[in-house]
Write a structure and sequence with these properties.
single chain; 161 residues; mainly alpha; Rna Polymerase Sigma Factor, Chain: A; Arc Repressor Mutant, subunit A; 2 domains; globular
Length: 161
């Protein structure tokens, strides 16, 4: 990959990678660090990465960097017991996006990542498998389980509105 192709990939993919990581981490500074690390790794491996594969490489690298960061943080601090997941809402909400974001945050990390890649970023099952290192069938299973959880968590649209 040439310097011009690297610069073009920064212009083309930095925002999408940042949105994906930010949606997972919910911390702008950490998301910026992960994206910067991904582009640094791309720069160091530029001669081995084809320009046609740079998008997949960036998302895969950013995803794995994010997972490493989360594991490191988990080891450094003890997690408090999570609240029990309540699968129904009795409160009235007027903002469907707020309800959906809260529901996505309740998903396990593996399901959350594949749901975001599929439904927010529009990747195919095959591309998601390449990014996450899962098999295509496992990606489908995680997406199915995640969507089922979201459906059960949110309930009907009439309940939310």
């Amino acid at each position: 990959m040439s310097i011009e192709e690297y610069n073009a990939s920064v212009d083309q993919y930095s925002d999408a990678v940042y949105r994906f990581i930010l949606k997972n981490l919910k911390d702008q500074d950490k998301a910026k660090d992960v994206v910067q690390d991904a582009f640094e790794k791309l720069w160091l491996k530029a001669e081995n990465v084809s320009y046609s594969k740079v998008k997949s490489y960036l998302f895969s690298t950013a995803y794995h960097t994010m997972i490493d960061m989360l594991r490191k943080e988990k080891k450094e601090s003890r997690m408090q017991d999570e609240e029990a997941i309540i699968l129904s809402h009795t409160n009235q909400y007027t903002d469907l996006n707020e309800v959906l974001n809260k529901a996505v945050e309740k998903l396990p990390e593996s399901q959350k990542s594949v749901i975001l890649l599929r439904d927010y970023e529009g990747y195919s099952y095959d591309e998601i498998a390449g990014i996450t290192g899962l098999s295509e069938s496992q990606v489908k299973v995680y997406i199915y389980r995640g969507r089922k959880f979201l459906k059960d968590y949110i309930g009907t649209v009439e309940t939310v509105l």
